[in-house]
Amino acid sequence: MSLPDKPLLVYDGDCGFCRVWIARWRRTTGDRVEYAPYQEAAARFPEMPIERFRGAVQLVEPDGRWSAGAEAVFRSLAHAPGRGWGLWLYLRLPGFAPVSEWCYRRVARHRSALERITRWIGW
Fold first, then answer.
1. How far is 70 from 58, CA to CA, in rounded Å?
2. Which of 27, 57, 65, 84 falls 20 to 30 Å from 90 in CA-CA distance?
3. Average pLDDT over residues 103-110
4. φ and ψ at 2, to 5 degrees?
5. Whose CA is closest to 12, among 61, 55, 70?
6. What is the C-alpha to C-alpha distance for residues 79 and 93, in angstroms, rounded to an integer?
C-alpha cells in the first residue's frame, strides 16, 4: 500500500454527480486534500477490494486510517477552515452518524437523478 502524503478522497470517476461534488469540495479544501477517481487510485491499494471503492467514497489518511461514505466526506471537509463542524457532529452527536450514513446511501443509490437536479439548479 502506498500511503498518501495528505488525505486522499477516492471517488467514482464515472459518476457525473460525484464529479460535480468533488469539484465543489476541491474548491473548499484547496490543496489540503488530494482527490482521485478509484479507476486510477485503486492500483495504489491492491489490498482493498474494488467493491469498496465502487460502493462509497473512501478517504485514505497519511497515517493509514480509512473511512468511507458520510464519514469520509466529513473527515475530508474538516481539512478546510471552518468546515470541521460536520465531523464534530458525526463523532459526538448521538444519532448523527447513522442518519448521515443512511442519507449517504440514499444519495448514492439515486445519484443519476441527483446529478440532473444538481446541474439543473446550477451547482
1. 9
2. 27
3. 94
4. -105, 100
5. 55
6. 20
